[in-house]
Design goal:
The chain has about 1000 residues and is mainly β. The two termini are about 45 Å apart. Belongs to the TonB-dependent receptor family.
Amino acid sequence: MKKIYALLILALGCMSYSYAQESVSGIVLSDTEKVPVPGVSVYIKGEPKGAVTTDFDGNFKIKVQQTQGVLVFSYVGFKTKEVSFSAPQKLTVSLAEEVSTLNEVVVVGYGSQKRSDVTGAIGSVKSENFNKGVVANAGQLIQGKVAGVNVIAASGEPGASQDIIIRGVGSLRSGTTPLYVVDGFALDNSGTGVASNPLNFINPQDIESIEVLKDASASAIYGSRAANGVIVITTKKGSKGQNKINLSITSGYSSLANKVDVFSADEFRKQVAAVNGTLQDGGANTNWQDELTRTGVSQNVNLSMSGGTEKSTYAASLGVDNQEGVLRNSDLKRYSGRLNLNQKALNDKFSVAFNMTATKLENSRPDARGIVGNMLTMNPTDAVYVNGQPNTNLSNDILNPLISERIYSDETNNNRILANISPSYEFIKGLTYKFNLGVDYSMSERDIQVLPYTSATNTTLGSLNNVMTTNNNVLYENTLTYNFTKGVHNFTVLAGQSYQKIQVNQKSYNLSGFPDNGVEPKNQIETASERTTQSSSAVENELQSFFGRLNYGFDNKYLLTATMRADGSSKFGKNNRYGYFPSVALGWNITKEDFLAESETVNNLKLRASWGQTGSQEIPSKITKASYTESNTGYDTYPLDPSATDLGGYPYGSIYTRLANPNIQWEVSTQTNIGLDFSLFNNRLSGTVDYFNKVSENILLEVAPVDPIQPTSKYWTNIPDMQIKNHGIEVALDYSSDKTRDFSYSIGGNVSFTNNKVENSPYKILTTGGAQGGGQSGATINGVLNGQPIGSFYMLEFTGIGANGLNQFADTNGDGQILDNDRVVAGSALPDYIYAFYLNFKYKNIDLGFNFNGAGGNKIYNHVAMTSFNRGNLANSFNTTDRASEFLNESSTNSNTVSTRYLEDGSFLRLNNATLGYNLSPKLIGLDNVMDNIRLSVTGQNLFVITKYSGYDPEINTGTSVGDIQSFGIDYFSYPRSRTIVFGLNAAF
């Protein structure tokens, strides 16, 4: 009985305690404008799970279980404030705005700095400013977001490879790829076995920020791999006292954004007759662009959790992403998991950070070039189906593309783990040692197969190409950092050592001649009847590095940054194994001077200047060493056996396939930069202006020897005196209205002007792009010419059709003949300028944003038009555009010669992204005790493009090369881009 009474007394006590709960209410105002601030998070200190948010009028009310305590007020763009209370009480709280981005932390190589202390040219994009929608990789997140950075996708394929060009093209062999660093780990994407973008393995929703290190001062700390710039990716981490769960779900629908204006069936019949061609009329009316594309459906589900205490924080996520392209059998599936842990101990002197990302990637790719060619050239009078089955009796004995889709497949499965652990210990105040151990392991298998198929007009032997690739990248780093202040002097000294070892192994085999028994070739390799070809390769590269950096600040006014890195690479010969890459930068915070210290107009004004050198080691392995093979042809053998009657009886001899060259040196890029950062009018208007000059020397190429008597046809060397120069201006501006009002807006943008030129080249032209097929294979389209930009189009100047119905070209040298020496430079594939701008609007809980990007001054060679849209094809019942009938007197036998006839303006303006969002208060639907926020959104991607280019899309970069020199600006039947509408739901708990 006593126990029962005790329980009753306890229950009554609890009830009385609950009934005794008090509340604290009030209003939150901005410190400067004294207007209400909606959306402010209010919670009892130490109890963030019970947070409430202020309403549209800045009002809040929170229940408290104690009569006294501390409330915490936090909101993006304002300083967090703690206020004591005595319940019941009504408070009026003023929040001060954060001082623009001056206190923003920017991640740099091997550390971080406040934006106000940065002396280099660094572009930073935070997660809230990333491009929205269906996104496969980090490059898509920052397209148009950073001045001087041009992001170009190779095609419209899901997760397509990209060219990210930072301040112009500065190399030939290594292309434009920057170095990617993820959470302190430098990636190697050269041999992952993935045909699409190797960065697809990182879930974009796991990324917190992306920094682009543009000038040598910022990037020289990465030395030999920083000639094309550095992109530093930082993933999301947990925060103390904030336990969060976030669920996001999106669904996207993609369709062909633009159609090429080929003839309809009725137009086709008239046009074939008009050129006196042979019409093969199938009696149908088919739009092959509609028939061979689809509405691609994409889904993304991402669940993340984060939180922590004073001693430890965590962040974890799981993601599933399934993207469909507009071409069938074009899919990208990603299953990802990420874990970040941070732990402190020993009075916070010892800490450990752990990051791990694990991804399974499944990539299906169609024969895009063949499909696009069929979409544009197939006879529109042919029926797609006959009696419900694909038509097997098409014009010109073409195999029905629907059958081609069924029998062709290109599938890659990739498993990749990126993990690193970084313990650190502070020996004395400011002196910290850090060890970083990381591994990036990738394993992929790619099967390209064609099923056997036989019809009355077509026979296809089954075939299989299997490629297995493993890439093992291990990193060991030791750094020592010392931060100390003495009076007005502030120092940060960094010293470090790094060792990285990369092993790439690849095995492949080709089989053909499989039986048509309903079993895929990859599942019955033993049945192949044709000869098997096999190959394997193994590459091991090592990079040993020593580096140091000094940051010095005097009275927060005058800044100095000096770095030095020494890199030793196994790719180079014994005579030049090490390269040395210094840099120095100065900064002047002018607003710290007395004459501006009290200015209410100029809030920040900083002048920066830097000089430095970076390198490129992106050359094939082993090229400094001699290589041999055996041969018994020509002069490679000698008839030691007098009875031998032919070469089959001669012995094999050893011959060179590559000469040793231990003197090969690093490519070196020397860059100077002068920049100005400013903020005006209470930080409403901010911006940067930069001038840069980058000169690349010691250009590495594989070239033909001048002396015709050489044991090999080509050899690797540094080209003496050859230079690639890039100089230009970058401007970025941003303006934001008062964020505390019901209606606010922001507007901004950037523009970059870059002049690219090759000087002192000993070659008349190094071909970067050549024609393919159509009787023109190998004909030069563009290349590297002395005194001209990389990717300059070098061709005959088309002047029209002559009386004989054939092409006419300008006789530029006046010798009365049309020969190769009449070719002219007719523009460049590289744009003279790139630009982007945005408009963001917000009214209470509704927001609307637009992102535009564009380029100008570049040309595109329409290889599709040269190959397909000509009078001869039309006369033979292949579809074309009105290009084929542009000249009434043109002969059907006229050749499709490489010329300016197919060169078009590549300038464009694109509405890249538009998003409409609504933040639904959980309180409105009775879920305020469960959720913190609900966001609904709809996003449109690639909504329109303004351009004169007649192809699918003016952003052309097919990723091809000639002699390992990258091509630019040639449209080789590129995978067309899509227009996408994405619906999103984000719930925060």
